[in-house]
Predict the 3D structure of the following.
Amino acid sequence: MRLPEGWVTAAALALLPAVALWAWAADEPFTITLATRAAILALAAVGLNVALGIGGLVSLGHAVFFGIGGYAMGILAFHAQTYAPLEIGPLTIAGTRSMPLIWLVATAASALVAWLIGLLSLRTSGIYFIMITLAFGQMAFYFAISWTAYGGEDGLSIYVRNGFPGLNTLVPIQFFALCCAVLLLAVALQWRLRASGFGLALDAARQAPARVEAAGLSPRRLKLAAFVLSGALTGLAGALFADLNRFVSPSMFSWQLSGELIVLIVLGGTGRLAGPVIGAALFVALEHWLGGLTEFWLVWLGAILLGIVLFARGGVVGLLTGRAGPHV
Amino acid sequence: MSEVLAADGLTKRFGALLASDGVSIDVRAGEIHAVIGPNGAGKSTLIAQISGALAPDAGTVRLNGADVTRWSVARRAKAGLARTFQVSALALEATAEENVMLGALGRDGGLRHRTARNAALRDAARAALDRVGLAARGTPASDLSHGQRRQLEVAVALAQRPRLFLMDEPMAGLGAEGTRRLTPLLDGLRAEAPILLVEHDMDAVFALADRITVLVAGRAIATGTPSAIRADADVRAAYLGDG
């Protein structure tokens, strides 16, 4: 097929709201929850797509940021629900149930950690970069497991979903609308980024770093900036994911989750605007339908992934537009 | 005569191999200074030290009077050093125009702005493409012929509006026809900025160069006008094949 990419993107972005609205009209709250889950995973994948799809940074540690976002929400809401302020050295910070505040903390903390991880890991490339990011992911995972103040291995339950001004976030369709709006903003940001000089230079830094350097730009700084932005977006998704489940646990830091995010992008189309959204929708749909049919649904997911990698390198977006897309 | 580039006593050792043995070379405004030498003479090592990819063990590199010996590749590029690569280094998935815009981006910034709305960037890219005679603006670099990619390499460097071109075998793999087309282009470029030209194609070198430096086994054995080099007994013995 040779559909214009703009149409594919528009259709992909309309898909989740359409499903959610249908489920709302048909009074199927569980389907709304599935659509919300897809929107949040898509947001996390949009984050990874900036680093992986444009910058060519195959991070197998993006769960770090997802987990940091999750724990930012968990810790702030935990202190709000126990009325015990958070004490960091001489600082005393009250917990909060306000999503905007939690988002701010989640993105800032993820961005900071992404900067630190990026500074170290961007000295390497290829398989070494993958291994270093994986190592950071495992460090965070084991740290969370042993952090008994916040539930350790058992995780933390938050009893009431955090609030957003003007919305009742406990109503599924309202929480979906909020997550979907954040996703749309993130996709718009990714588009704007790719269309900018920064996007052009980052894309070139993936393909011909020596040329970028010879033009007077530092490939490593470009990639570091992309990695920080990427981490911040994935961290924001983590905060929303924790609010969806009202639960945080070390599994948000697991390397399986990092792998899943890569799978989403490859399914949808690496580096494509709609790739993460289509990938996440497909993943959640398969998880639900195939998972309902057989316990071994991951085998079928594996087969589909194999088919895409072997025969459709551009993922679903590549199939629809007839263009393979960036080569990572 | 003002020297745009002055490399002095560059020395680089790799284990037992002395790849650069006190090489001094300068490039003056308006000239093409060619570097020739047999394979393994240290031409690539010299280029790497001038571009900043390799730090010399000893010696200095000055660009427009400033000591840039410890500067990074990117910083030298910003100071006006534009290079082309022996093996084309281009973003193959990007269009020819996008590749050239990259050159202008490094010079002028504009990382935040949308490239499609950045008229200055676009104009600079188109002017550079027109100058090298490459009409296929919107074609991905991967679809360009080898000859077109060589032209594109020059266009990217040109868009940097450099003070000095550093060209590493721009004719590599072009064949007689391609070389004939690229020669007048390089000839005209010296009006924009002088060129340090490393090249294997002797016809092109002797047609273009104002001065030639001959490298043999890491040492500059002679520097002079093409006719002086042609007449130099050492060069003939060491390199041009007359024993």
Remarks:
- Chain B has a mean pLDDT of 92.
- Residues 93-161 of chain B form one domain.
- Chain B has two domains: 1-80+163-243, 93-161.
- The interface with chain A takes residues 51, 72-75, 77-78, 82-83, 85, 89-94, 98-99, 101-103, 105-107, 109-116, 118, 121, 156, 160 of chain B (CB under 8 Å).
